Fold Carbohydrate kinase family protein.
Amino acid sequence: MSPSSPARAEAAAAPPILVLGNVNVDLVLGPLDGWPAIGTEIEVERAEMRAGGSAGNTALALTGLGEPHRLVASTGDGPNGVWLRGRFDAASCDWSDDPGMTTTTVGIVHKGGDRVFLTTPGHLQRATPEALLARVPAAPRPGAVAILSGNLLMPAIRAATTRILGELRARGWATAIDPGWPTQGWTPLLRTTFGEWLPLADHVLLNEDEVAALGEGMGSGAVAAQLRPGGILVVKRGAAGASCMVDGAESIVSAPVVDVVDTVGAGDSFNAAYLAAIVAGATPDSAIARGVEVASHAISTFPRSYGKAGRFVAQQ
């Protein structure tokens, strides 16, 4: 057997979607009609403790959809970390151990479905690019996609994002990125940093507030102009649906009207369905339509579900 055979075997065994990034415990409470006064207490109708984080939610949606994938992530080594790992399909995960507390996010759902997040630092503050990249195989085939999610919440991963995206490309992966909302705010330095990331991503998945902040109100075209030729900017627009822009051409898909339970993880569920459609050979506009369909189902069900399971088949 030649020295390269084990590497080829590993690549052949890898699924076509690789999910990298933040996994944490989510405690979702609500609905809330305005913030209570300091020093008071109120009751809410619903509380749910579940696995979360942008990468975590994407992996859960891929599992729910029956789409082959691999999640590469870390947790703390305490009880919450053990509990968190148990929420995922073990055969689809490659975990690294991180001594200490597991990051926890409290999601407060407001009436109408909007939400706000409160996050503890925990293990995400200690995640390293070395541990992440050590678990990244070569891409199994052309068109396989690796998504880096929630990197803005992980300082060392954030600092190494340019390197990580470059390494993913070198290993044959098409790249996708959904950095999340910066807790430090949209500083000039962060916008410059995004300018380094965007040309290295084949798929940039942002919500409309992130696009507005990144582009300083100049619209999605200003952000899309920073992408590589053929790069796809996807803008998740909540109840309005989603759009994508490729080389200046824009497609828009409307969302169905649904009774919203909660929107926590909606964008991540969208990402899962979008990427599954892309690796199946769908066009960008068909992929965003699939993303909108699955996200709309996810936000309107409790316990959460993603619609009919089964691998996406692109229409020819």
